Structure formats: structure tokens, C-alpha cells
Amino acid sequence: MGIAFSDKQWDDVRKTYKAWWAQKLDRPVVPVWLANRNPGRPRPATPRLSQENCADLTIPAEAIIDRIDYELSQYTFLGDAYPFVNFDSFGPGVVAAFLGARLDTSSGRVWFHPKKILPISELHLEYDPDNEYLLRVRALYRAAMDRWGDQVLLSMPDLGGCLDILSTFRPGEFLLLDLVDAPDAVNRLTREIHDLWHRFFDELSADLHGSGRPSVVSRGWTDWSGTFSDHPAYILQSDFSYMISPQMFDRFVRPELDASATRLGRAVYHLDGLGQLAHLDMILSIPYIKAVQWVPGDGKPPQDMWPEVYRKCHNAGKASLVYCGPDGLNRLGSLLGTKAGLCHMPVRLNVDQASEATDWLDLIL
Predict the structure, then answer these.
(1) Sign of CA dihedral 90, 95, 97, 98
(2) Percent share of the chain, pLDDT over 70
């Protein structure tokens, strides 16, 4: 049967998200994937691409894409949903692997480790065009574009934040001490990682947008959050910032965030954990950060129970990326006086949850 999504649906997605980015959409964004279709063929033997098997480079890229095609063919895309492939399977902060860190999947999840911990004064990070994981992502992109053309959007991998990437090479308390003992070296490496990060972003974007393949051009950009953009965009982060003061954030993180958001033109900030709330005012002051994704953390009240966070973002003219269910969206709408500016991350429902789709779609009527 294949993937069912029309050019008219793509046009509607583009218009909806463009209005959301511009804070001109008068309703929330609600993407719902309903698994109610028969793919019309047997399930391929190739396993799903995951953090557990992403390091197995013996599996042909075409076979992985064929398995993803089988999965996508089961869905009807409702509301603001669209078919995309999430490449977060290579782990959070995969730029570390692109720069030579060891990618470890032994736990079933991806972790990155330095091959050797060097003194920060001796640490230099360089682009390697032959890096096996960079080549793997690009091979999957080629196979996907050959299979689907512009009918399926391919996400950027989870590239990571600059200090998060640096903390792979200076793990544990090393980087925390470096902020005090070697601030110039930290800033030097942050600049190096910033330039490399954007080189990877630009090269992967070129793969998707017709560089050398003018007949096959992606319809836009997305990342692990599933947020569509018709302009280069990404969800930025600095999870390491949970452990540092606002003064250190202002010195070591905010300038690079501002530069990255400006360079992209559109960005969401992944605000992960209570320790990052101290930095929120600085984050909201960055013009090209257009939205915030607040994640309270394990064991904390759910997203919709933090009205002060969303009100602060709303009053600063920023949108919010959320994952809180229909009731949570309604609660946030009541707290803010509007559901405009809220974008729910993609929701996947099984065929026996079809009636629940109505609750979701009622939010956008």
C-alpha cells in the first residue's frame, strides 16, 4: 500500500508550522499518528533501527529504510502530523561520535566515551570526512531519498549541545573544574565545536536539499522533536547547564546559543530539569530562539503543572513545545488564556485507540 500522504497535506503542514513559528497560529499544533493501515506486505526481517543496533554497520542502509517504510505504511497521519524518520537512534550528542568518541551500545542505549582523556590544553577536535558514523547517517539519507523522494522528511540526528559534546571528552568533574581552572581553553573548544556542529548541520542539510541531486529535494527540516520547519531550524540544548550557575551560563553557554540560533534562523531550546530554570530569562532574551521545550525531569510534576514556566515563555513572546496529552493542553490553554503557541510533539496511537484520536483532533477545531 505504501505511505499515504498527499501534496495537499504537505502544503497544509507547511502553512501550519510556518504560522506557528511566526506566532500567528490561533490554535495549538497537534500531530497524531494512527496505526490503522495494513502495509500490504510481510514485515521485513531487518530489525528496526534503534540505539541498540545503530552501531551494527553490516546491515545495508537500504534494508533499514525498507523496514522503516514498512512501519510508516501502517499509519494514517492526522491533524498536523506528517511522515518523518527520527534519526535519534544514534544517541543524544552524536557529534561526539562524529569527532572520534567511542559509541557504546552495550547497555541497549547509546553512550559516548573518549578514547583517551587528554588535558584540556592538548584537546583539539577536528572534522573527519571518513568518520564511520557520519558516513552511516549520510548513507541512510541517500537510501531514504532514493526510496521516498520528498514524500518522507528525514530528521537531523540528535547532534547535541556544545558543552554536552565537550563533556564527552572531558567527562565527570573534569569539565566543571575546567570552567574555573581553564576558562580560555573551554571557550576555545566551544568555538571549535560550534563551527564543527554547523558544518555537520550544513552538510547533512545539503544531502537532503539537493546538493548533487537536484531532482530530489526535501520539503523542509525537522529534528528528534518532530517539529517541522520550511527554513533551517533545530532544537538546541545544553543539558550540562543544569550543574552551573547563571554567571557561568552567561559566560560559557549563552553566547554560543545566541550564535547558533542566529545562524539557523529558528530554534527551540530544550530546557531539561529544574537546574536550568535559573537560566530561563537569558534563554528567553535570545531573539532567534522562538520556542522552549520544558522537561521537568523524572519524578517531578508533569509539564502542564508548571504554569509559571509557560506564562514566562508566553509573556516573552515564545512558543512552547509540549508533551502533556489533550487534558494537559486544555489546562495550559486555561492558564495562559489561549492554546495558541502550543505545539504538541507527535502522538502515536494504536488501531484500538482510534476513538482517542477524536479527543486530540477536537483541540484543533
Answers:
(1) positive
(2) 98
CA-based torsion, 35, 39, 40, 41: positive or negative: negative
Locate cell 530569562: which residue?
281
Q: HEC profile for 272-319?
A: ECHHHHHHHHHHHCCCCEEEEEEECCCCCCCHHHCHHHHHHHHHCCCE
- Angstrom CA distances, 231 to 60, 206, 219, 264, 270, stand at 31, 13, 10, 8, 19
Residue with cell string 565527570: 172
Q: Which of 123, 108, 198, 216 is nearest to 162 (CA)?
A: 198
Q: In the prediction, which pLDDT does 217 show?
A: 76
pLDDT digits (tens, 9 = 90+) for 131-189: 999 999 999 999 999 999 999 999 999 999 999 999 999 998 999 999 999 999 999 99
Cα separation values, 10 from 44, 220, 337, Å: 28, 10, 30
Residue-wise burial string across 162-199, b where 16 or more C-beta atoms lie within 10 A, e elsewhere: bbbbbbbbbeeebbeebbeebeebbeebbebbbebbbe
- Decide if pLDDT at 219 tops 70: yes
Q: How does pLDDT run across 97-130, given as a tens digit for each residue?
A: 999 999 999 999 999 999 999 999 999 999 999 9
Give pLDDT tens digits for 305-317: 999 999 999 999 9
Specify whether the CB–CB gap between 161 and 181 falls below 8 A.
no
Residue for cell digits 554560543?
256
Q: Which three cell numbers stand for residue 21?
A: 513559528
Residue where the block lists cell 518523518 = 84
For the chain, the structural domain boundaries read 38-73+82-221, 233-345
